[in-house]
């Protein structure tokens, strides 16, 4: 919750401080920030944490056993879309954590995740599976990246009714990058210039 408060402040400003005259000095202490977190939010997060422990489907064990994991990974192509970071990648599975009170797999979730995988221009994270964890219900949905790209391609004007004829992942990435550059996005910096 503390990280969420600072994330919110970095994105939209610290309005919960600046609207109150006692914060005018801008010397904000940790106890002051913690005091702004509603008790109901703490209870809510605690419930979601307990639910995750009961329904982690082996994720914690995979991490304990040394599985490669990246929290809030940024992709080499993220600059092409003005910045993009996923929630978590563990052993080739890109995991998005959704805390919506109305769980359900939405097409936009899948396209967002496929976009993240395509922004991994050098296949640094080797994403092959997309996982969505619904934090309020403990439910998981997992699909292969290839299947999601195939579903998206079927909706495209040229279509790919036969999944066996789908382009390779490298081809998808190259086409995605070219399309973004054509739309006026900046070219991706070289690896030497890349800053995280």
Keywords:
196 residues; alpha+beta; five-stranded mixed β-sheet; 8 helices; 5 strands; 42% helix; 12% strand
The share of residues in helices is: 40-55%
**Class derived from helix and strand content:** alpha+beta
Low-confidence residue ranges: 191-196
Q: Report strand %.
A: 5-15%
User: What does the overall shape look like?
Assistant: globular
Radius of gyration: 20 Å
First-residue to last-residue Cα separation: 23 Å
Average residue-wise pLDDT: 81
H/E element order: HHHHHEEEHEEHH
Q: Describe the main β-sheet briefly.
A: 5 strands, mixed
- Care to count the β-strands? 5
Q: Which strand order does the major sheet show?
A: 1-2-3-4-5
The count of helical stretches stands at: 8
Q: What is the strand and helix layout of this fold?
A:
Blueprint: H1 2-12, H2 15-18, H3 30-35, H4 39-55, H5 59-64, E1 69-71, E2 88-90, E3 93-98, H6 107-119, E4 129-134, E5 139-144, H7 145-155, H8 169-182
Parallel strand pairs: 3-4
Antiparallel strand pairs: 1-2, 2-3, 4-5
């Amino acid at each position: 919750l503390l990280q969420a408060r600072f994330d919110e402040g970095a994105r939209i400003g610290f309005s919960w401080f600046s609207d109150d005259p006692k914060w005018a000095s801008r010397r904000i202490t940790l106890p002051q920030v913690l005091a702004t977190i509603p008790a109901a939010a703490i209870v809510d997060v605690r419930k979601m944490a307990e639910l995750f422990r009961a329904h982690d489907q082996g994720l914690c064990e995979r991490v304990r056993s040394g599985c490669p994991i990246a929290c809030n990974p940024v992709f080499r192509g993220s600059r092409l879309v003005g910045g993009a970071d996923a929630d978590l990648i563990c052993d080739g599975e890109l995991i998005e954590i959704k805390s919506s009170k109305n769980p359900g797999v939405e097409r936009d979730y899948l396209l967002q995740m496929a976009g993240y995988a395509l922004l991994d221009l050098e296949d640094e994270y080797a994403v092959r599976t997309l996982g969505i964890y619904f934090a309020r219900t403990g439910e998981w949905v997992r699909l292969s990246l290839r299947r999601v790209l195939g579903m998206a391609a079927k909706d495209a004007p040229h279509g790919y009714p036969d999944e066996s004829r789908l382009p390779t992942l490298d081809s998808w990435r190259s086409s995605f990058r070219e399309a973004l550059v054509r739309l006026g996005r900046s070219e991706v910096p070289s690896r030497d210039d890349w800053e995280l």
